[in-house]
Amino acid sequence: MSNDAQTAGPARDGVIEHLVPENWSPADVELSIVVPALNEEITVGEFVEWCKEGLQRAGVNGQILIVDSSTDSTARIVLEHGGEVLRTPKRGLGRAYIDAIPYIRGKWIVMGDADLTYDFRELVPFVKEFRNGAEFVMGSRFRGSIEKGAMPGLHRYFGTPFTTWILNRIYRSSYSDIHCGMRGLTRAALEKIDLKSQSWEYASEMVLKAARLRLKMAEVPVRFYKDREGRVSHHRRMGWLSPWMAGWLNLKVMLVYTPDSFLLKPGLALMAIGLLLSLGLAGGPLLIGNIGFGLYWMLFGVTCTTLGFSSVQIGVLARVMHGLRPGFVERVQKIVTYDRGMLVAAVFVIAGVILLATLVNAYLNHGLRLQAISHPAILGLLFLILGFQTFCFTLLMEMAQRVASKVGR
Fold it and tell me: CA-to-CA distance for 220 and 141, rounded, in angstroms?
């Protein structure tokens, strides 16, 4: 640990350094402001002063920790204004927060940007919600204010509302702005969330996991300002494709952490439709009213059953691997044991072989030619597929549980 402001410069590869201002002492704090920065020398000095004012208004002792990967004077300016600097290699926003965890001293944390687009002088609403027991406090620009020119129209009127609506439908939450960069959470909640994302997608991962873990959540209005004169946002620095790449990364997180939401229920529905058709037509074609159900309907049923069963299996495995629903995982582990899985797989395979035997027998008795379509044989093929899927699913469940047990040690 260094207290020499003159040493603040680009981080060496793989090295993390905690720099503190002169005459600094590690006093007890309630609230840690933790903000990544990359070449923010234009705004970071005033930002630290905003943080000080916000802490004073909220009546809390605070820590101002800037996670810095800059090549300019950002770190030096932060130290001159009395903030702490965690100097890290440039590895992404998500990784910046992961690197900062050992250096966070407060029981509450507020995150954001050091570019003066979020008003850190207004920390009172966050502190109030923390004192009321909130574990995750989301800022909302839509419930607060958005300065003219601060947010592109595509983001304001389509991108953010649309993705927020999707997440609310999936998790039955009531967010109004899931992409707001200013947010707060308790130290315990941050450890529960266990961030994995290295880049922009950390924001979506945090919101998704907070909802899935059923953390006590609140939402507070925040002010959102446009960039200061002379400053160019990181998205603009990286070109027109940058916002689209950020959106793509956030979509990836939503897909990775919520496959069970769009696989389990649709999978069960597909299975129900498929089994109804497959079992109903196993004895041969049916005529219901003026509608005939024959071979092609049965093949459609086999397809629906197979796809549905695969979807359910992947959804269950996703929940087990994420570990975000401990109660569900415990129930699955009690029901889906290795012995039961192998027994069910064997039953499917034996039933499939028996049903296929009728087709093989007819094939052999007619000079190696099939005289008619055998609906029971098609059902046998379905049972063989389900048997193989169950066998593979049982092995994967066993592997997933062993990996989870090793991680928990």
Answer: 9
Which of 257, 284, 315 terminates a domain? The answer is 257
Which amino acid would we find at residue 238? M
Asked if 253 and 298 sit in the same domain, the reply is no
Nearest to 176 by CA among 201, 207, 210, 133: 207
Query: What percent of the chain is predicted at pLDDT more than 70?
Result: 90
Residue 261 backbone zone (phi > 0: left; psi -120 to 50: alpha; other: beta):
alpha
pTM for the full model? 0.75
Pairing label, strands 286-288, 183-186: unpaired
Q: Choose the weakest-confidence range: 9-18, 58-67, 239-248, 358-367.
A: 239-248
Q: Is 317 or 365 the better-scoring residue by pLDDT?
A: 317
Q: Are 256 and 319 in contact, with CB atoms under 8 Å apart? A: no
H/E stretch holding 219:
strand 217-224
- Give the whole-angstrom CA distance, residue 282 versus residue 236: 61
Number of domains in the chain: 2
Handedness of CA 224, 225, 227, 228 (dihedral sign): negative
What's the half-sphere exposure (Cβ side, CA atoms, 13 Å) at 190?
A: 23
Render pLDDT for 196-219 as a digit per residue (tens, 0 to 9): 888 878 888 898 889 888 899 999
